[in-house]
Amino acid sequence: MSVLTGLTKSGSAWKPKFMTNIDQDVCLNCSRFAQICDRDVLNLQPMNKFGEFIDEDDDKIKLQAMTIANPENCADCQACVSIWDKFPTYVPLPA
Ligand code: SF4
């Protein structure tokens, strides 16, 4: 499989990677990811006590879980990686 590649300013190869998954089993839902991403890729979604996503106006909200709302907006800026690179999955974009 070929992947999208580019060049850095110095001319060396650069392979951009884009966020595609958040492991909900290890995510702390601290919301820092949503705060640092200025491209509206990430969003906090309310969940009930059973771990099911529910509407924002539902009165049974137990916690908020980090989700990828707009993956097409990811620009591989790596700002979220600087916070915690343990649970998101970043993959190169196929060419
Ligand atoms: S790499 Fe940048 S644009 Fe993509 S999700 Fe992380 S902070 Fe947002």
From TrEMBL:
Species of provenance: Hyella patelloides LEGE 07179
Q: What is this protein called?
A: Ferredoxin-3
Q: Which Gene3D superfamilies match?
A: 3.30.70.20
Gene that encodes it? fdxB
